[in-house]
Amino acid sequence: MDNIKDILEHNKQFVENRDYEAYISDKFPQKKMMIVTCMDTRLVELLPKAMNFRNGDVKIIKTAGAIISHPFGSAMRSILVGLYELGAKEVIVVGHHECGMAALNSDDMLHHMTERGISGEVLDTIEHSGINLKNWLRGFNNVQEGLMETVELIRNHPLLPSDVPVHGMIIDPKTGALDLLVDGNKNLAVKS
């Protein structure tokens, strides 16, 4: 199967038929929100529908497990850009039940890397440069734990404005049902 060929053929028709017109928006999130969620394929269309978001309503950042693992990495930078430059006013972290990051085993993943041609020398070089690959590739024990760590990392970031609520939710990837774990509005009073 040639996915690129299929994509380009579809895209040509999409543009010729002007199907894009249904998605016209600008770069500013109309609902003034940033969403950090998992890259799970089940959430691609389900999450926006379950949260009543349309194209242009929110900025969505997708990571494995909805995890932000470094306070000065690209995901956190994207949140700050959304807040300071694009008009977002709040952040929602949305994890999901049955997340693959809860079952991720870093030893297995390192083994898969060597099976696909990454040499032990490369892995050793990375380790000797100060990066603990087993720690970097680890998942989490449960979805709630992973969600709470990310909410806390964002909420306690030294560059986060004090008036930004950071919420935490878990979505059911089958039904779209949402559970609120952290109401960021309640935490604003504590942070001030």
From TrEMBL:
This is carbonic anhydrase. It comes from the Bacteria. The lineage of its organism: Bacteria, Bacillati, Bacillota, Bacilli, Bacillales. Its EC number is 4.2.1.1. Its cofactor is Zn(2+). SUPFAM superfamilies: beta-carbonic anhydrase, cab. Keywords: Metal-binding, Zinc. InterPro entries: Carbonic_anhydrase, Carbonic_anhydrase_sf. It comes from Paenibacillus polygoni. Belongs to the beta-class carbonic anhydrase family. It holds the Pfam family Pro_CA. It catalyses: hydrogencarbonate + H(+) = CO2 + H2O.
